[in-house]
């Protein structure tokens, strides 16, 4: 391996910029400080009425432009948070001209939401009142609706804003979405198709309809009286995940390109692995094949052995199903002496499409500062989960390589290996 190539002769992929937006704050510094302090960003929902919802808590991001006005729609929130994270990452990278590569955006699927549907229904009359055909007719000429809720539109506007090259790529792979966006950027640079890539994961789905859908799946925690204690990954009394929102962005470059322009290298993305099992819309195959395969593939892609991984940033949702399957994967990949593993979701909740990108940034910060973020709310250990989950308090550690896991509904799994700057 040369100084700028990996074990397969591919361009090494450097990280030169990072941005974060989470319920703990706007910006990398504020969010990272909250995670190390073990602070929870989960609160009672204030954005919309929750009287008839089984779950009334979530991780919410307070956007300055929402003060004193109706809440933004989910696509608008995705775009605002993605732009905030990307602006921070690009500024840190020192790229001050047109961005020299493509945009890869991980975001949720979007659709016209209930406030807009009700607005259109009110414009209909007679026997057709409220019917979809009449609502479609009422939406005729509503370019604002079309542009707001067009899936690819967010990526196009972000590409214009940051001056990225080529057509932006928007991807949605359930809870692995943010990691998928990074994987696309990594592979484009490794193949020599791009010198740089702007990779973003963003989520803004804390809204009534999405909450109801996840609640119907019995996937959400209902510990409404204790919001800060509701997200309990790997703990015996866990009962479901806490929905959240946020965004993260990474500026990726070939190490050769970063060095040529004198950029500070914050870390490396050494490898990526993906597997899908198509077993069930929400459950993983009980054999754990896709989860185990994604972890092993990422480690092998990085040219490493499992014993060279110092820490695992867990998917760690707090659902009985996920935590059990992730434990199975850890034992299968690492044997009887797995490395420490902890879940940021215990503090910020499950940011869905943003999770993989947020956790990649946190993994790089873990390497930079040599501190493992904790899994909070770990009160009653689960004897079926014999892992070091860094319970309740951050811990100093020597960390050079991190495996970051992202396991999505429908068996969509992506794992990333992050490493220290050379």
UniProtKB/TrEMBL annotation:
Listed Pfam families: ketoacyl-synt, Ketoacyl-synt_C
SUPFAM superfamilies registered for this protein in UniProt: Thiolase-like
This protein's pathway: Lipid metabolism; fatty acid biosynthesis
CDD domains (alphabetical): KAS_I_II
Domain Ketosynthase family 3 (KS3), chain residue ranges per copy: 10-420
Domain of life of the organism encoding this protein: Bacteria
Residues that span the membrane, as ranges: 12-37
Keyword NAD in annotation: no
Signal sequence annotation: none
Keywords: Membrane, Transferase, Transmembrane, Transmembrane helix
Family affiliation: Belongs to the thiolase-like superfamily. Beta-ketoacyl-ACP synthases family.
Stated name of the protein: Beta-ketoacyl-ACP synthase
Native source organism of the sequence: Belnapia mucosa
């Amino acid at each position: 391996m040369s100084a700028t190539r990996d074990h397969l002769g591919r361009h090494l992929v450097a990280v030169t910029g990072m941005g974060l937006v989470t319920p703990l704050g706007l910006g990398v510094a504020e969010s990272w400080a909250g995670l190390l302090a073990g602070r929870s960003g989960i609160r009672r929902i204030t954005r919309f009425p929750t009287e008839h919802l089984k779950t009334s808590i979530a991780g919410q991001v307070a956007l300055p432009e929402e003060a004193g006005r109706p809440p933004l729609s989910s696509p608008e929130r995705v775009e605002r948070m993605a732009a905030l994270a990307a602006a921070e990452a690009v500024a840190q990278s020192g790229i001050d001209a047109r961005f020299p590569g493509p945009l890869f955006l991980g975001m949720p699927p979007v659709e016209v939401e209930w406030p807009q549907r009700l607005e259109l229904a009110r414009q209909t009359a007679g026997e057709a009142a409220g019917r979809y055909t009449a609502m479609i007719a009422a939406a005729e000429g509503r370019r604002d609706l079309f542009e707001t809720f067009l899936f690819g539109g967010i990526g196009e506007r972000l590409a214009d804003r940051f001056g990225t090259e080529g057509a932006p790529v928007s991807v949605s792979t359930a809870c692995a979405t943010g990691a998928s966006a990074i994987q696309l950027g990594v592979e484009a640079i490794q193949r020599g198709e791009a010198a740089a890539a702007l990779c973003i994961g963003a989520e803004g789905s804390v809204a009534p309809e999405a909450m109801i859908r996840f609640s119907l799946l019995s996937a959400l925690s209902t510990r409404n009286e204790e919001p800060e204690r509701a997200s309990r990954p790997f703990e015996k009394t866990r009962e479901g995940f806490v929905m959240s929102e946020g965004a993260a962005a990474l500026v990726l470059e070939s190490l050769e390109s970063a060095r040529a322009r004198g950029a500070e290298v914050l870390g490396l993305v050494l490898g990526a692995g993906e597997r899908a099992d198509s077993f069930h819309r929400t459950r993983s195959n009980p054999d754990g094949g896709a989860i185990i395969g994604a972890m092993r593939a990422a480690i092998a892609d990085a040219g490493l052995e499992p014993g060279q991984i110092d820490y695992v940033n867990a998917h760690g949702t707090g659902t009985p199903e996920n935590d059990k399957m992730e434990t199975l994967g850890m034992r299968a990949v690492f044997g009887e002496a797995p490395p420490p593993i902890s879940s940021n979701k215990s503090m910020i909740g499950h940011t869905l499409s943003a999770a993989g990108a947020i956790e990649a940034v946190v993994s790089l910060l873990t390497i930079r500062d040599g501190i493992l973020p904790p899994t909070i709310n770990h009160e009653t250990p689960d004897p079926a989960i014999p892992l070091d989950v860094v319970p309740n308090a951050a811990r100093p550690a020597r960390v050079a390589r991190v495996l970051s896991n992202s396991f999505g509904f429908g068996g969509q799994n992506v794992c990333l290996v992050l490493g220290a700057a050379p």
